[in-house]
Specification:
4-stranded antiparallel sheet, about 0% helix
Length: about 130
């Protein structure tokens, strides 16, 4: 079996390791807040959402194939998150599959006011910061 090895901030992460994941920095305009997100994780699973936001509906699909999805949206406008709230957003476990390292992608929807125009930000793997939890 081939072990997956990924480097994060100078520290090697291996199968079974838990990583703190931050989203961003997000390209938001002044006054925009996060109202929804969808994140896909390849070769990893979600272990926790450390600061579960109140007023959000969140769904996690921790598939046994290590192809994980998490999505959420606000239930009320006052529950919208600031971009800083996406820091240390998830704890992810790395898989032991020989298919490659941890890959994250997704979208974040932002809005600047209730009833305003929604804007979707596409996220690539490089827009997710990861730190190995000792």
């Amino acid at each position: 079996m081939v072990a997956s090895l990924t480097l994060f901030c100078g520290t090697a992460a291996r199968a079974g390791d838990h990583l703190t994941v931050s989203v961003g920095p997000l390209d938001v305009k002044p006054g925009e807040r996060v109202i929804a997100f969808h994140i896909h994780i390849a070769n990893g699973g979600i272990r926790s959402l450390p600061r579960l936001p109140m007023g959000w509906s969140i769904t996690v699909d921790n598939d046994a194939s290590w192809q994980t999805q998490i999505e959420g949206s606000i239930q009320v406008g006052a529950a919208a998150l600031g971009p800083e709230d996406m820091k240390n957003f998830l704890v992810v476990e790395m898989s032991d599959l020989p298919t490659g390292g941890l890959e994250l992608s997704g979208e974040v929807m932002v809005n600047d006011e209730p009833g305003g125009t929604d804007r979707t930000l596409t996220l690539g793997n490089s827009q997710f910061s990861r730190w190995k939890i000792p």
